[in-house]
Amino acid sequence: MANVCNMSEIDGRSGYCKSNSTFYSKRRPAPLPANQTLDVTTFISARAHHGVTAYIDASTGRRLTFSDVWRMVESVSSSLSDFGIRKGDVVLLLSPNSIFFPIVCHSVMSLGAIITTTNPLNTNREINKQIADSKPVLAFTIPELLPKLAESNLPIVLIGSGSGKGKIVSTLEEMMRKEPNRNRVKERVTQDDTATLLYSSGTTGSSKGVISSHRNLIAMVQTVLGRFQLEDQQTFLCTVPMFHIYGLVAFATGLMASGATVVVLPKFEIQDMLSAIEMYKVTYLPLVPPILVALVNNADQIRKKYDLRSLKWALSGGAPLSKELTEGFMEKFPGVTIMQGYGLTETTGIGASTDTMEESRRYGTAGMLSSNMEARIIDPDSGKALAVNQTGELWLKGPTVMKGYFSNAEATASTLDSSGWLSTGDLCYIDEDGFIFVVDRLKELIKYKGYQVPPAELEALLLMHPEVDDCAVIPFPDKEVGQFPMAYVVRKNGSNLCEKGVMEFVAKQVAPYKRIRAVAFIESVPKNPSGKILRKNLIHLATSTSSRL
Q1: Which part of the chain is the AMP-dependent synthetase/ligase domain (predicted)?
Q2: Hey, which residues does 118 pair with through a beta bridge?
Q3: DSSP code of 146?
Q4: What is the CA radius of gyration of the chain?
Q5: Residue range 25-72, pLDDT digits in tens
Q6: 119/130 Cα distance (integer angstroms)
Q7: How far is CA 62 from the centre of its chain?
Q8: Sequence-distant (≥ 6) Cβ neighbours of residue 184 within 8 angstroms
């Protein structure tokens, strides 16, 4: 297959080139810096903008100006250097959303060290598994989460006031107050060096560390800036978790270069979200579809209680929006434009988007390819690249695509080919106007409130139950949360295991978003000749049974 396509061969409507079966972005290209000796923190801090307030803590009202942020980053990075943190070292950040989250991330990355984040809801077992894999040399966390690091024996920097057991070496407050050491040796950091190590759920049940470079993050920042083109000072509300790629892209890195103000919700509660929109005159509201559903369903009460007139844009990610939800939201909140985004941890959160209401009204779409991004639609059986309006697996290529999976050459080789094409695991087609539509998933991840839940992980846990002979976990569709995990269980002979027993067994060992929320008992799990679970059969059984109830 040819790799080069002349511009004259690209169809202006779809972005498709017949000579190499590749779709090209119709967006304006995002410029990338030629200087290879550049880290993402320096790149962002050097950008000129007119912003004053960078972050506001919605719970306390505390504000950080942009000059506060960069002064604190300089102080914390200097302290980390004094602690012996060097280029290539991994530093763990275990924290809920905080105005200090970006300060820790940029302080670490400015040294050429690597930031790895984890979900505060994860269990000790899940966190220790990530620690064993990524091998951090230091951890940042809040006092309330110290017990989750008790078994790690890691040196710990406390964020916020309080105390607790652990090998505490300093506090972030002390570090931020420290005068930077101007004589410290700064190691050479290049765009190709690793900046972040975020963990992505896998179909095998084992979470994999996604290696993103400074170049990946710089390209992401440029894409974000090109998408929003913020001329006046705008205010974004941080509703999504900063440890996740969505939050990291929007709030800890991308928007810092724009001069926008970010209002941070330490913990998501819909009432707190609405109060913050009113109090801080929020203009942009990033969210996931379940929050959009809640806004539509409770619109009348919300509008009576809260003044949301400042809100101009709702940015949805995680799953394409239906016509009913899009139209319902526009009817209830007529002054707000819906924009959507599609991306993976493996693509630094970048992939496709709708950037206007007109584009969002292409119902069910994930959007058009982001700047600098290329796509192919590959037939999963033949490996042949397909054309417009043909369904196959979506492959993406561009400057935001990861370097690979950490210490996992096999997983990297099966996801990323030698030419830089990433297989997304999503069955899609691209229509004649260049819009991507997600039809199904090849990777069997369950999307619960935007969180990814691998069925294989829950199945492995269930098989450890002494009364479970076999099992399968499927995504059950739900209007409120998107999908939730449902288990089909084969009991061992003589067992009286009940639904509650199954759910409680799993709940003790996983984060809340991974919990089993429905159970059905069956005689045997349907499988193909090679032993692979036929989940589609079970999904059909579950949904058809539900509709008859």
Answers
A1: 45-406
A2: 94
A3: G
A4: 23
A5: 999 999 999 999 999 999 999 998 889 999 999 999 999 999 999 999
A6: 11
A7: 26
A8: 78, 81, 82
How many Å apart are CA 125 and CA 130, to the nearest integer? Answer: 9
Beta bridge partners of 451: 448
Q: Which of 401, 321, 326, 329 is nearest to 366 (CA)?
A: 321
59-232 and 446-548 share one fold: no
CA distance 96 to 123: 14
Residue 23's beta-bridge partner residues? 16, 375
pTM across the whole model = 0.86
CATH architecture of 59-232: 3-Layer(aba) Sandwich (3.40)
Q: Which amino acid, one-letter code, is at 74?
A: E
Is the pLDDT at 360 greater than 70, yes or no? yes
The pair of structure tokens assigned to 310 is 């400042």
Those residues whose C-beta lies under 8 Å from the C-beta of residue 529, and which sit 6 or more positions away, are none
Query: Rounded to whole angstroms, how far apart are CA atoms 233 and 261?
Result: 7
Which structure tokens are listed for 102? 């970006």
Q: Which two tokens stand for residue 47?
A: 């950008």
Cβ contact 457:445 at 8 Å:
no
What DSSP letter does each residue of 259-304 carry, written as one string? Answer: T-EEEE-SS--HHHHHHHHHHHT--EEEE-HHHHHHHHHTHHHHHH
pLDDT tens for residues 289-311? 878 888 998 999 999 999 999 99
**Does 446-548 carry CATH code 3.20.20.80?**
no
**Domain ranges in the chain?**
59-232, 446-548
Contact 88, 188 (CB under 8 A): no
d(CA 434, CA 353): 11
DSSP 156: E
The arithmetic mean of pLDDT across residues 442-471, rounded, is 85
